[in-house]
Recover the amino acids of this structure.
């Protein structure tokens, strides 16, 4: 007579069967993303996309950069200004003026500091304050992220994702604050010394290890989702903190346009992976704990800037 | 009659006096480093320095890169191999074969994967194993770092500095392990699938946000301390994972030499700031909590990769 397995044996058997059925290694993050279903991808509205065109590279190769603007509630005043400046074609003819290795690429009016020669700004720009660097209310944080992030999320300090962007926050039961984070490729608003918070006429992007000391000290307004390589590979500046010493070294910007202002055929159609989807969580887990064949020891956690939100052209 | 201040009042008075004497803002990290004394700087031995010379840039501009090799106990076998390859002039004529944005620049023998065309390796190279990715004993961690780092140091997971390099570790009271970390500019040893751990003939450096998933999965052998901009600004690769599709796109490497093998006049004399010095700790604190005039809200902590060990030419 066969002995009926005891209740202790059953779970053990289940564990053994699972172990046998599971492959020794798991998928890399990009293959998990490739398995996501059409409903897991979110269209980015043409009003939330900027197309920035540099002068062509040395061999006439075009250099086009696509920026996703940050969704409300974050930085709404600066983002409104950037839309206004793009619609006024104000950015046309400005230049990349600064490239500091492992820090930022910055573009703006080369004569912006000279009251006589500065390009006049269009009317209607909003003035923001340092209070606008943080959003003073709670945003949902997916509990599944808690064990993936380093540092771990807790009630007083946490990080998460919202509408394709990462954010960090802190709080007490009575008061919660959130703010966007300076990861590689994020786009921010240049400013002078406080109380100036910048208009949006001068922008920068991060080309190195996340300079998180800038969080809550300067406004972030979006992130580069295509063409980052055209900025990150520019020659580093020859002067102090990476500013170019001579006008000849600068890279001219032909135009920056809202995608919604471009002819239909030139509009990019881009989607981000829904950060609340199961595929995003599997992707985040794979970024935090690589188990694909190249890897031996999973890291046990990832910095939020090591989990960039996946992007694709709409199929 | 004047009342003698009570013992409660005295410390309060001291606090008020300190607050009055202290400027409203503090020095930025680089100004703290500039104040360090000659005895706070440590010479890097010429046997621990590699000088890598690329072919000149388009306008004949020289491109020279200086690499500090990792001190024992870390990665000693791979570092020995790199010295052997440099002394044999094996690296001369290889090329930068891969540039993947926000990840790595990699150099090696373009025909390394082709048994018939691969450049023969010199005899005497050591074979290492995956066990050599970690150092199985305790290294001292300065207690002053505990509150500056994010994540915070605790007994089971910590980070620190030793001889100009950052490391991470974990442990229990009976077993402590340490390993070097993949920060921007770190130099590692390319490898194929495990159990291969690489010889040191193929190297890479990090050109983006620290890919910490590589820690304990691949050997680190040094860090770039001069000329990083020559590698980080190279055009990104046109093929899969950033490999160049055509030989013409590669950047040739003229030579990689140990500084000790160069004529005296060509040897770089470089120093790092002693990571146990008070000035280093003040610098680390300033990186973790910027209080200089541009900043409004100190971050409250820094990732270890946001505290690069300062370097200077020996005065």
């Amino acid at each position: 007579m066969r002995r009926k397995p005891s209740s202790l044996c059953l779970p053990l058997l289940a564990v053994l069967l699972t172990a046998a059925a599971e492959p020794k290694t798991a998928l890399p993050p990009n293959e998990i993303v490739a398995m996501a279903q059409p409903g897991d991808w979110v269209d980015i509205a043409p009003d939330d996309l900027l197309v920035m065109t540099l002068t062509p590279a040395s061999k006439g190769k075009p250099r086009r950069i696509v920026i996703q603007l940050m969704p409300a509630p974050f930085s709404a005043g600066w983002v409104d200004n950037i839309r206004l400046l793009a619609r006024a074609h104000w950015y046309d003819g400005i230049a990349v003026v600064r490239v500091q290795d492992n820090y930022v690429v910055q573009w703006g009016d080369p004569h912006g500091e000279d009251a006589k020669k500065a390009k006049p700004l269009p009317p209607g720009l909003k003035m923001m304050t340092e209070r606008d660097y943080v959003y003073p209310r709670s945003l949902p944080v997916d509990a599944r992220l808690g064990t993936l992030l380093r540092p771990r999320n807790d009630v007083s300090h946490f990080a998460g994702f919202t509408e394709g962007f990462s954010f960090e926050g802190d709080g007490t039961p009575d008061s919660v604050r959130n703010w966007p984070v300076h990861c590689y490729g994020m786009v921010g608003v240049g400013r002078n010394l406080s109380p100036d918070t910048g208009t949006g006429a001068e922008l920068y992007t991060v080309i190195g290890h996340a300079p998180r000391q800038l969080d809550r000290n300067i406004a972030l307004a979006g992130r580069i989702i295509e063409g980052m390589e055209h900025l990150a590979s520019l020659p580093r500046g020859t002067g102090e903190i990476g500013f170019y010493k001579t006008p000849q070294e600068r890279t001219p910007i032909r135009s920056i346009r809202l995608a919604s202002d471009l002819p239909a055929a030139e509009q990019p159609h881009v989607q981000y992976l829904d950060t609340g989807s199961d595929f995003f969580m599997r992707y985040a887990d794979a970024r935090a704990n690589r188990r694909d064949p190249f890897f031996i020891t999973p890291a046990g956690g990832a910095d939020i800037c090591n989990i960039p939100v996946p992007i694709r052209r709409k199929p």
Observations:
- Helices of chain B lie at 9-21, 29-34, 76-87, 228-232, 278-288.
- The first helix of chain B runs from residue 9 to 21.
